[in-house]
C-alpha cells in the first residue's frame, strides 16, 4: 500500500484597498524596500528629529495658520523638521479629537491629546489627508493587486496601487506596511506580539484540514478587508468633534468548488478568516502596541476623520497653501511586493492539492454627522481664549470635557458605523442590491431623528451611488436630491448627480451641478473632469479643454483628463495635440479600455 503525503497550501496576495500626488523634497532619499518577504519601512522620525512631548493630560491645540507663517519664515527648509519638532509633530498630538475654525483670523486649529507610547503624527500626514479628500476626493487606500488571469506562485511580484495620492508619502508607506504585517500574521508568518498570542487564520484552517473537517474549499480565494472607521464625526458651525474609532473587518469568499462540488460564493463563510478577523477587531489596541505602523493606523485615521469633518464646515479659511505649496517629505513607497506562501504537510489525501489564497484591503474613512442644534460657543472660546499669542503654533488647554452638546436622541444607534462599513464593502464588489438593502436599513434607523441630517445625507448619497451602479438613474437622482436637501453644501452629491445627468444626456443640468460642486470646493479635480466631459458632449470644446486643463493643474497624473482632453482636441481638428494627450493617457493607464475606444473614435473622424 502506497502512503501518499499531501500539503495544505496557503497563498497570501496582499491587496489593501487605497491617485498620484505631486510631492517635491530634493533632500529626501528615503525608500521603502522588501527584503525576504518583509517590508523595510523608514521610520516616521529620521535621525536627529524629535517628537514634541507635552505633558500627558489635557488637550493640545495646533494652529495651521501659525504653522504656515512659521514655515514661510524659514530661510532653509531642508532641516526644519529636525529643528522644529513642535511644528512637524503637530505639537505632540497623537490622538486627534476635532478642529475649531476661527473665521475671524482665518485659522484652522487642530485639537487633540497625547498618550504615552503612541506613534507620532506629523504635519505631512495631515497635508496628505487634506489632499486625498479635498483634491483627489478619495479616502486613503493602498492595494496590492495580483496580475489578472495569472495563477499566483510564491515570489511572484504583485503591483501596489495607491488611491488618494498617498503614494511616495510616509502615510502611504505605513499603511502598506501595516497591511502587509496583518496578512503575514493571518498566514502565521509573523507573531502578533499580543500577550497570550493569537491563532492565525492559517493555523485554524490547518487544524480543520488535519481533522478532515467537512466543507473546506479547494482552490478558494478569501478576501480579508480591514477598515478602521471613525464612527462619529460631529460638525456644528465652526467646530468638528470626533467620536470613537471602530475596526471593521470583513471577509469575502470567491470559491470555485467545495471538494469537487460547485457552490454559490455568497452562501459560504470562511470561518477561519472570520475568527481571525474578530480577534484583530477585539484586540486591536494590544496589536498596535506591538507594531508601530499598525499603531499609526489609528492616529492617521483620526486625521482623516478631522479632514472629513472640515470638508463640511461652511466658509472655512483657505487651505490653498497646504493643498498646493507645502512640500511633503518624499518616502518612495514600494511599487510591488512578492506573493507570500505558507505550506504545511498533511498526511491525509482527503484534501489533495488543497490551495487557499488570501487577499484583502485597508481603507481609512469616517462618517460625518452635521448638527443644526447645540451651543458650541463655549468650545470655541475654550480653545481661542487661552492662546498665549497670535503667533503660537501650539498650546495646551485644561478643560473637563470637550464635547459638542447633543439634543436627546440626536445620535442614532451605535451600529451605524459597522453598517456603513459593510455597505462600503459591498460597493467594492458591485453587489448593488445587497448594498441598497443595508442602506435602506440605515435610513430606517435614522428616519425618525430630525437632528441626524449628516447621517441621512451620507446614507442617501451612497444609496444614490448604488442605484447609479445599477443604471437606475432616476432613483439615483432622487437620492442625490434628498442628500442635498439635508446637506446643501454636499459637493460630492452635486458632482455625482451631475454625472448621472450626463449619462442621461441632460448636459445643461449636469453642468449646473458641476458648477455648484466647484463653487463649494474648487479643488476637486474630478469635478472639472466631469464638467469638461459634459461641455465636450454639448460641443463646447474650448470650455471643455479649459476644464481638463484645470483638472490636470490640480492633479497632473489623471489619465481620464488627458484622454478626454485629447478627444476634445481631436474634435477641434488639433490632431497633434490630441495624439500627445492620448500618448500621456496610455502611459499613465495602458490597461484602460477607454483609450482604445477614444483612439478608434479619433481615426473615425
Helix and strand layout, with pairings?
Layout: E1 6-12, E2 30-31, E3 33-35, E4 38-40, E5 59-63, H1 64-73, H2 80-83, H3 85-88, E6 95-102, E7 107-113, H4 123-134, E8 141-145, E9 157-163, H5 170-186, H6 201-210, E10 220-236, E11 239-242, E12 245-253, H7 271-282, H8 284-290, H9 292-311, H10 320-325, E13 331-332, E14 336-338, E15 340-346, E16 355-363, E17 365-370, H11 377-384, E18 394-397, H12 416-428, H13 432-446, H14 453-469, H15 473-486, H16 491-503, H17 507-520, H18 525-537, H19 541-554, H20 559-571, H21 575-588, H22 593-603
Protein architecture, described:
The protein folds into two domains: 6-45 and 112-379, no CATH class; 416-603, Serine Threonine Protein Phosphatase 5, Tetratricopeptide repeat, CATH 1.25.40. Strand 6 (95-102) and strand 7 form a beta hairpin. It is an alpha+beta fold and 605 residues long. The protein has 22 helices and 18 strands.
Amino acid at each position: 500500500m502506497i502512503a501518499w503525503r499531501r500539503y495544505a497550501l496557503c497563498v497570501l496576495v496582499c491587496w489593501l484597498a487605497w491617485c498620484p500626488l505631486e510631492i517635491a523634497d530634493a533632500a529626501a532619499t528615503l525608500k521603502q524596500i522588501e527584503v525576504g518577504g518583509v517590508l523595510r519601512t523608514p521610520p516616521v522620525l529620521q535621525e536627529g528629529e524629535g517628537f514634541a512631548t507635552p505633558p500627558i493630560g489635557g488637550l493640545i491645540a495646533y494652529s495651521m495658520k501659525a504653522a504656515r507663517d512659521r514655515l514661510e519664515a524659514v530661510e532653509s527648509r531642508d532641516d526644519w523638521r529636525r529643528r522644529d519638532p513642535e511644528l512637524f509633530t503637530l505639537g505632540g498630538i497623537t490622538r486627534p479629537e476635532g478642529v475649531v475654525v476661527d473665521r475671524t483670523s482665518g485659522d484652522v486649529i487642530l485639537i487633540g491629546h497625547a498618550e504615552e507610547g503612541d506613534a507620532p503624527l506629523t504635519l505631512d500626514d495631515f497635508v496628505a489627508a487634506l489632499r486625498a479628500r479635498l483634491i483627489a476626493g478619495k479616502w486613503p487606500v493602498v492595494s496590492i493587486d495580483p496580475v489578472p488571469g495569472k495563477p499566483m506562485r510564491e515570489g511572484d511580484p504583485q503591483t501596489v496601487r495607491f488611491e488618494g495620492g498617498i503614494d511616495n508619502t510616509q502615510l502611504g508607506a505605513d499603511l502598506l506596511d501595516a497591511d502587509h504585517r496583518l496578512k503575514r500574521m493571518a498566514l502565521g508568518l509573523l507573531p502578533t506580539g499580543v500577550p497570550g498570542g493569537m491563532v492565525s487564520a492559517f493555523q485554524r484552517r490547518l487544524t480543520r484540514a488535519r481533522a478532515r473537517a467537512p466543507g473546506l474549499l479547494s482552490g478558494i480565494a478569501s478576501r480579508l478587508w480591514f477598515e478602521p472607521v471613525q464612527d462619529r464625526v460631529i460638525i456644528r458651525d465652526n467646530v468638528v468633534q470626533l467620536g470613537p474609532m471602530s475596526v471593521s473587518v470583513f471577509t469575502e469568499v470567491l470559491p470555485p468548488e467545495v471538494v469537487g462540488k460547485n457552490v454559490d460564493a455568497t452562501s459560504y463563510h470562511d470561518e477561519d478568516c472570520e475568527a481571525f478577523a474578530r480577534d484583530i477587531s477585539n484586540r486591536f489596541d494590544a496589536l498596535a502596541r506591538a507594531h508601530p505602523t499598525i499603531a499609526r493606523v489609528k492616529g492617521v485615521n483620526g486625521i482623516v476623520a478631522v479632514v472629513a469633518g472640515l470638508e463640511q464646515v461652511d466658509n472655512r479659511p483657505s487651505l490653498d497653501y497646504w493643498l498646493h505649496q507645502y512640500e511633503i517629505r518624499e518616502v518612495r513607497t514600494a511599487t510591488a511586493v512578492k506573493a507570500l506562501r505558507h505550506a504545511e504537510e498533511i498526511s491525509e489525501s482527503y484534501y489533495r492539492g488543497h490551495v487557499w489564497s488570501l487577499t484583502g484591503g485597508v481603507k481609512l474613512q469616517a462618517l460625518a454627522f452635521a448638527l443644526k442644534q447645540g451651543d458650541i460657543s463655549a468650545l470655541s472660546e475654550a480653545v481661542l481664549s487661552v492662546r498665549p499669542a497670535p503667533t503660537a503654533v501650539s498650546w495646551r488647554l485644561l478643560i473637563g470635557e470637550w464635547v459638542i452638546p447633543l439634543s436627546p436622541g440626536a445620535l442614532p444607534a451605535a451600529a451605524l458605523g459597522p453598517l456603513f462599513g459593510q455597505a462600503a464593502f459591498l460597493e467594492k464588489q458591485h453587489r448593488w442590491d445587497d448594498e441598497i438593502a443595508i442602506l435602506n436599513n440605515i435610513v430606517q434607523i435614522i428616519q425618525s431623528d430630525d437632528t441626524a441630517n449628516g447621517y441621512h445625507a451620507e446614507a442617501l448619497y451612497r444609496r444614490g451611488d448604488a442605484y447609479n451602479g445599477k443604471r437606475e438613474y432616476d432613483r439615483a437622482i432622487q437620492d442625490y436630491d434628498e442628500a442635498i436637501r439635508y446637506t446643501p453644501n454636499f459637493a460630492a452629491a452635486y458632482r455625482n448627480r451631475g454625472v448621472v445627468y450626463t449619462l442621461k444626456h441632460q448636459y445643461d443640468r449636469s453642468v449646473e451641478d458641476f458648477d455648484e460642486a466647484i463653487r463649494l470646493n474648487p479643488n476637486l479635480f474630478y469635478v472639472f473632469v466631469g464638467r469638461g466631459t459634459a461641455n465636450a458632449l454639448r460641443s463646447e470644446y474650448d470650455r471643455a479643454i479649459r476644464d481638463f486643463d484645470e483638472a490636470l493643474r490640480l492633479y497632473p497624473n489623471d489619465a481620464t483628463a488627458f484622454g478626454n482632453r485629447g478627444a476634445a482636441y481631436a474634435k477641434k481638428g488639433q490632431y497633434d495635440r490630441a495624439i500627445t494627450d492620448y500618448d500621456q493617457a496610455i502611459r499613465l493607464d495602458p490597461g484602460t479600455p477607454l483609450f482604445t475606444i477614444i483612439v478608434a473614435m479619433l481615426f473615425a473622424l
